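Form 7-S
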Amino acid sequence: MAVNSCCNVDYNTLKEQDCRSRLLTLVIVIIIYTGKVILEAVILTAVVVVSLTLFTFWAAKRGYDFNFLGPFLFGAVMVLVVFSFIQVFFPLGETSVMIYGGLSALVFCGYIVYDTDNLIKRYTYDEYIWAAVALYLDIINLFISLLTILRAADN
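Output:
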């Protein structure tokens, strides 16, 4: 009985909270970054997401499986988290910010392929919301990583 009660999720509340947090992130991005950098990041993100999605659909049709990427991507995210904590306490300069942005962009490109493959092969029709959330987070994180690279390069 406890399992059923803990699995009841109010999707409307989650949706409202997510919309508020994304709106706050968008406002901060608009305030901090210049229009040129934002436009470049949007275009790059769109091109990368479309190309990786088409590649994953093509590869899935040919029988490739990207499930093996899961542990590697998780380990890479943990490295990024530790690296960002090091950056907070011991700033290493603009070069390390660009390296961090580049590594995180590569990791989230891997997550786009991994989650798209999971969407094609593993998620059922009842789990489409979680598949969409996973891809949404990958795309947002890729966008933020590209913003980091482009802002550091713009300085």
